[in-house]
């Protein structure tokens, strides 16, 4: 199974409602699609969202990295050279983790197809279904409470609340949501780097002292401030999940060695794909630190790859893969089945993606 072509396109999928965080507001998913074609007709699918505010990867940068660097490193090679191919992707260009992740998952897709095995079984195959939280966008307290109630009515029992804009409102936001949904719903929060270390400790401890029962806080301080992250971890009543601070296995090792966070968030777009995600998971296993599997605002192809990883690795105990259910439409054929909070992995070979509905994919060539 030799690689003959790498083709790129774009899909646009509207969201049910605008997605608001401390860093950005988005109304639709606009992702780059990767198709890796082979001489036997098999096609591997990958996807990368342009999240310049987080990864630095814009649409143009993703396209340029793949066309000018990554594709040249894999064209003409056999998929059976699997690990060397994955290594070539990582070495082909500095940075550009989203572009690397899209190609990496497409190669895993092809490798699974070549063996007639779904990717999650190649990764360990511990389970076939997982349960995700759902994100509640950052708004005024009343709107967030209303949105939280709507999510609970749809069957969600774990809510990820975005916070961080006007921090003085954050306690009020969480209080309104907790009052609305009651004590049996799990609430986790994501500050997207918005707070200073001392501010984070003050806010988080006030939340817990008021009985808001926060499960964890995701990335309370700036990504580069590992000392500040450790300060929050050491002084907060709320467990700390490192997210934007974890862009590589090396980042993960540093955080684990410092004891700078209680948990790690693995996102394929940050670390460059499944190849590096497995290294982060292995490091976390050594230290006994549980992981969350997360996603950017992505459509189903890339989130589907994360589902396979989550189903294969037991150290991943928390799931934040709500990208597809935030979309108004699902143009992706095949792959995992998303039934609100319940996600069932595809048992088809590879990643189980069969194509994209006509009219959604626009090729760049």
Short description:
This protein is about 40% helix and about 25% strand. The chain is α/β, with parallel strands linked by helices and about 375 residues long. The chain folds into two domains: about 5-115 and about 355-365, Enolase-like, N-terminal domain (Enolase-like, domain 1), CATH 3.30.390.10; about 120-355, TIM Barrel.
Explain how this protein is built:
The chain folds into two domains: 3-116 and 357-363, Enolase-like, domain 1; 121-356, Alpha-Beta Barrel (TIM Barrel). The protein is built from 13 helices and 17 strands. It has an eight-stranded parallel sheet with strand order 5-6-7-8-9-10-11-12. It has helices at residues 59-74, 82-91, 97-115, 119-122, 141-153, 170-181, 197-209, 226-235, 249-258, 268-271, 274-287, 300-312, 323-326, and strands at 3-20, 25-38, 43-48, 129-131, 134-136, 158-162, 186-190, 214-218, 240-242, 263-267, 291-294, 316-320, 332-334, 337-339, 342-344, 353-356, 361-363. 39% of the residues lie in helices and 25% in strands. The protein is globular, with a radius of gyration of 20 Å. The chain starts with a strand and ends with a strand. α5 packs parallel to α6, α6 runs parallel beside α7 (197-209) and α7 packs parallel to α8. It has 365 residues and is an alpha/beta fold.
CATH architecture term of the largest domain: Alpha-Beta Barrel
Shape: globular
Provide the CATH topology of the largest domain: TIM Barrel
Please report the total strand number as a whole number: 17
What's the CATH first level of the largest domain?
Alpha Beta
Total helical segments: 13
Stretches with pLDDT under 50, minimum 5 residues: none
Supply the CATH superfamily name of the largest domain: Enolase-like C-terminal domain
Radius of gyration, in angstroms, nearest whole number: 20 Å
Helix content: 25-40%
| Integer average pLDDT | 96
Spatial strand order of the main sheet: 5-6-7-8-9-10-11-12
In whole angstroms, the N-to-C terminal distance is: 23 Å
Give the count of structural domains.
2
Report the order of strands and helices.
EEEHHHHEEHEHEHEHEHEHHEHEHEEEEE
Proportion of strand residues: 25-35%
The computed structural class is: alpha/beta
The major pleated sheet works out as: 8 strands, parallel
């Amino acid at each position: 199974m030799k690689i003959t072509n790498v083709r790129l396109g774009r899909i646009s999928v509207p969201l049910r409602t605008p997605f608001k965080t401390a860093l950005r507001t988005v109304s639709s998913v606009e992702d780059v699609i990767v198709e890796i074609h082979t001489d036997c007709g098999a096609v591997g699918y990958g996807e990368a969202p342009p999240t310049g505010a987080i990864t630095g990867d814009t649409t143009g940068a993703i396209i340029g990295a793949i066309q000018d660097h990554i594709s040249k490193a894999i064209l003409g090679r056999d998929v059976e050279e699997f690990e060397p191919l994955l290594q070539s992707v990582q070495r082909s260009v500095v940075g550009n983790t989203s572009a690397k992740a899209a190609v990496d998952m497409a190669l895993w897709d092809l490798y699974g197809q070549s063996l007639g095995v779904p990717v999650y079984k190649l990764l360990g195959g511990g389970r076939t279904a997982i349960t995700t939280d759902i994100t509640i966008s950052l708004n005024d307290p009343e709107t967030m409470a209303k949105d939280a109630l709507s999510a609970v009515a749809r069957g969600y029992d774990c809510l990820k609340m975005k916070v961080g804009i006007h921090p003085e409102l954050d306690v009020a936001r969480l209080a309104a949501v907790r009052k609305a949904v009651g004590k049996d719903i799990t609430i986790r929060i994501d500050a997207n780097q918005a707070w200073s270390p001392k501010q984070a400790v003050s806010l988080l401890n006030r939340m817990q002292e008021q009985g808001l029962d926060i499960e964890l806080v995701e990335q309370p301080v700036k990504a580069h401030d590992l000392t500040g992250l450790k300060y929050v971890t050491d002084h907060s009543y709320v467990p700390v999940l490192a997210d934007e601070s974890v862009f590589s296995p090396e980042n993960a090792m540093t955080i684990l060695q410092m004891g700078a966070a209680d948990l790690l968030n693995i996102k394929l777009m940050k670390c460059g794909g499944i190849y590096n995600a497995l290294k982060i998971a292995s490091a976390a296993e050594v230290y006994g630190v549980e992981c969350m599997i997360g996603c950017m605002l992505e459509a189903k192809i890339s989130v589907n790859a994360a589902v396979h990883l989550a189903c294969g690795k037991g150290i991943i105990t928390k799931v934040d893969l709500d990208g597809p259910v935030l979309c108004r439409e699902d143009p992706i054929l095949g792959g995992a089945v998303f039934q609100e909070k319940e996600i069932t992995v595809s048992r088809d070979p590879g990643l189980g993606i069969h194509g994209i509905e006509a009219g959604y994919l626009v090729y760049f060539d």
